[in-house]
């Protein structure tokens, strides 16, 4: 078995989300590898079980003079292992704690309470199905309903004035900066809502904390958003979407 830690030794606010996205990517690549192996040698399917739990752990280096390794111990690790044991081959199971921290960002199937070794009370389990269409916590909040928009009327007017100048042929660029939670995403949401009836195409890309090592990630994210490319799309699906979008723009693949 393999144990992966997210949020240790450095704490991460989106550690559960990273863990689930990694699990989905692993399952996707395992399926591709298994299909290729079967077509080349006739070998039976290879499937992996993954279990995810989030909670406090004790981390540090363990070992002796011959071998030292960084690891984590505690009930959180044990429960993640139990989820892995419950999971069917080719699936990922998460606990209720992980589910609550990522609800809305992924689609889950509730499996009810399961009895696991080492726990007196049953544990609720969920099977991860796929990422949802919502990409951020704000997207989830917007779907559930937002509080009234107050205190940013001046900033919204600046954006709307810039939009009018851009529509008149004078290109505009705005930079919105502020501490986390001050309302940057909400301001952009209200701006988009204010011009929703205009003939405008929105192209959105994101710089994610875990994409620092991915070359041109903001650019590829912009393209994926514009071409409606989803996680898990096969190569043929990606090519078809790009081809259709380029034809709609009057361009070719070259």
From TrEMBL:
PANTHER family: GUANYLATE CYCLASE DOMAIN-CONTAINING PROTEIN, TESTICULAR SOLUBLE ADENYLYL CYCLASE
Coiled coil: none
Every Guanylate cyclase domain range: 1-84
UniProt entry keywords in alphabetical sequence: ATP-binding, Nucleotide-binding
BP-aspect Gene Ontology terms: cyclic nucleotide biosynthetic process; intracellular signal transduction
Pfam families reported in the protein's UniProt record: AAA_16, Guanylate_cyc
InterPro entries documented for this protein: A/G_cyclase, AAA_16, Nucleotide_cyclase, P-loop_NTPase
Protein's name according to its UniProt entry: Guanylate cyclase domain-containing protein
PROSITE patterns linked: GUANYLATE_CYCLASE_2 (PS50125)
Molecular function per GO: adenylate cyclase activity; ATP binding
GO CC annotations on file: cytoplasm
């Amino acid at each position: 078995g393999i144990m992966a830690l997210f949020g240790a030794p450095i704490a991460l606010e989106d550690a559960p989300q990273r863990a689930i996205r990694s699990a989905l990517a692993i399952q996707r690549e395992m399926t591709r590898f298994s299909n290729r192996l079967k077509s080349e040698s006739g070998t039976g399917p290879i499937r992996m079980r993954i279990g995810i739990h989030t909670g406090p752990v004790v981390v540090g280096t363990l070992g002796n003079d011959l071998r030292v390794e960084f690891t984590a111990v505690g009930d959180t690790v044990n429960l993640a292992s139990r989820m892995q044991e419950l999971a069917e081959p080719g699936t990922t199971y998460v606990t209720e704690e992980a589910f609550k921290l990522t609800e809305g960002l992924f689609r889950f199937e509730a499996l009810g309470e399961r009895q696991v070794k080492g726990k007196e009370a049953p544990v609720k389990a969920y099977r991860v199905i796929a990422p949802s269409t919502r990409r951020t916590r704000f997207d989830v909040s917007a779907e559930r309903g937002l509080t009234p928009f107050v205190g940013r009327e001046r900033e919204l007017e600046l954006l709307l004035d810039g939009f009018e100048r851009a529509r008149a042929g004078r290109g505009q660029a705005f930079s919105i900066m502020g501490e986390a939670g001050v309302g940057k995403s909400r301001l952009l949401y209200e701006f988009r809502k204010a011009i929703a009836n205009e003939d405008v195409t929105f192209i959105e890309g994101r710089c994610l904390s875990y994409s620092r090592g991915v070359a041109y990630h903001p650019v590829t994210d912009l393209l994926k958003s514009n071409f409606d490319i989803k996680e898990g799309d096969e190569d043929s699906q990606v090519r078809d979407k790009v081809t259709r979008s380029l034809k709609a723009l009057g361009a070719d693949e070259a």
